[in-house]
Amino acid sequence: MPPLQTLLTPLYLLFFTIHIPIMLLVDLYPLYPVPLRPAPLTKLRAWYVEGYKDRFFMEKGVGMEGVGAPACVVALMRLRVGKDSPTLNLTLLLFALQTALTTAVCVAEYRSWPELTPAEKTSLGGLYVPYLVFEGSGGVAMVMGVDMFDRVRRVLVQVEFGGNVRKTE
């Protein structure tokens, strides 16, 4: 495994370890039957909606997190046992693309909300934009996408050329 990938793999493990509980507690909250919703989560959600005026959390339903949740769980399980494979890399490539696309759409949409001030839009940006670029705050889509594309590409080149991969690759 190239040195950069050796560095990034533990960061992906950390990301999914943090991301899954957040996804279960915050993003998938609308799926919980009302009587089973923990009061602290309901208060947290109300505080967030009041403070950030994030329409995505005001409306009923779940976004793409419901689709990405299984991929996150599989990725965490496979990364925890140190099992890097082409199928895991392809799964993470698709997760990164889905995350980047849906986040970019969210950013474009909230930027058009007329009721938000420029400062409120900037504040929301601090929560959404990090998912497009890799930062310590948990953003992952672009770096993971490029990394996984390279990992999948390497496997395909080896298959296509019978293992005769140029040293520059």
Overview of this protein structure:
The protein has 169 residues and is mainly alpha-helical. The chain has one domain. The chain contains 7 helices and no strands. The protein has helices at 3-27, 39-52, 55-58, 65-80, 86-111, 118-128, 141-160.
What is the element layout, followed by pairings?
Layout: H1 3-27, H2 39-52, H3 55-58, H4 65-80, H5 86-111, H6 118-128, H7 141-160
Core attributes:
169 residues, mainly alpha, 69% helix, globular
User: What's the average pLDDT?
Assistant: 82
**Uncertain runs with pLDDT below 50, 5 residues or more?**
134-138
- Number of spatially distinct domains: 1
Helix content: 55-70%
Distance between the termini: 12 Å
The quaternary organization reads as single chain
| Biggest sheet statistics | none
Order of helices and strands: HHHHHHH
Please report the number of helical segments: 7
**Percent of residues in beta strands?**
under 5%
Query: How large is the radius of gyration?
Result: 18 Å
**Class derived from helix and strand content:** mainly alpha
Q: Quick one: how many beta strands? A: 0
From the spread of the alpha carbons, the general shape counts as globular
Protein name: EXPERA domain-containing protein
Keywords: Membrane, Transmembrane, Transmembrane helix
Domain EXPERA: 8-139
Membrane topology: Multi-pass membrane protein
